[in-house]
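Lab channel / #folding
Pinned by the channel admin:
"Please post every new chain as: sequence first, then the structure tokens as a reply. Keep commentary short and put observations after the output so the thread stays searchable."

First post following the new format, from NK:
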Amino acid sequence: MNMNRRQFLGRSVAAGAGLALPNIIPASALGADGAVAPSEKITLGCIGVGSQGKNNMNSFLGLPDCHVVAVCDTYADRRREAKDIVDAKYGDTGCAMFADFRELIARKDIDAVVITAQDHWHLLMATAAARAGKDMYCEKPLGVSVGESTRLREVVRETKRVFQTGTWQRSLEPFQRACTLARNGYVGKIHTVEVATEGPKYRPKYAGTLEPQPVPDGFDWEMWRGPAPAKPYNPGRVAWPDWYLIWDYCAGFITNWGVHHLDIANWGLPEIGDAPFELECTATYRNEGFTDNVDSWSAVFTYGSGLRMIFKDSVQQKSGCRFVGDKGWVHVDRSGIWAEPESLLKVEFKDTDIKLTDSTHHGGNLLECIRSRKDPVSDVDAAHKATILGMQADIAARLKQKLRWDPKAAHFVNNDDANKMLERPMHNGWKLT
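Reply from TO:
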């Protein structure tokens, strides 16, 4: 089963620059607990409609119980293309276009938003949406620092919004099976979890001059840059996958890609995200053009029970997540699922087993939960735990120190240098309110 991140849904704050958002409650959310009536379609606005954003949007367009009414992007051509796709789907010209996400969020007729902007925008956009009464689908990770992820989770819970993040592997049967086997003791007592994700194979595409360049017509560079440091425009900063490799906009694939399989590790063995641990990590860092975040890494998380999680890039270790117990192992990746003994792949689960989810479509699961007001399969708490594991490893690598993490206190034990790295400043007048 080959699957890339652009197929994911089909298969299966008020902030800044002196502008504030009004306290808006969407019209269809006026029922008990903000639930949308079963007879009504859920109205969606899509923020960020580049390559991945269009794929997200198209996946929701394929669902009968929602209606996309607005799109937003800092590129004029992208928002026009997205509007054309939506209008062609519905046979009208009703899809609105916005260059500023705050204007889209302020619309009273929008129930939920789909956020597919760059990582450095996730906190501000998602918290603004939550405070405006919107439910949401937000791409992972939950920001570019542990502090950002923590605050996003807090605001979502405070505002009682339904929040689904882009760890869509939870809506695929092989990952569900692997984690159900792990959670219910079919591999015995788990002593080792091996996680590996993509990283070093992604190289920058831009090879031109690093000098400042004129901003192209139809592109709002200052809005794209937002709370990131105030640096001049150059196409190498916004190219794909280049921006993923630049610290200003992304915490690196140790987090952005790592979140997928780290999430599976935590889903199959909650101790991973809930218990204290010691952490050691070594890493190399990029230095091509503007790129400067993590390239290759090797981390070991050690828990009080004796459990170890070994987390590396997929050049060093087989991609995916492997749960190793005293009765066998199961390994799952987007390319398949394997086990020893192989009979684990044919286990018929018992009614008494822990059942993780019924989700078979990640977007559909969000819409169901908007109506029921229940947590989706990839809720904000799970997203936070998976987000910060990669960031913690990166901090250990940068400091070249063994660190100890206290999940209840949400900080490193007796290490001021490490705790200072849990936060990142915002720039250009943007702030969380």
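NK: The first helix runs from residue 51 to 61.
TO: also worth noting, The CA atoms of residues 229 and 427 lie 6 Å apart.
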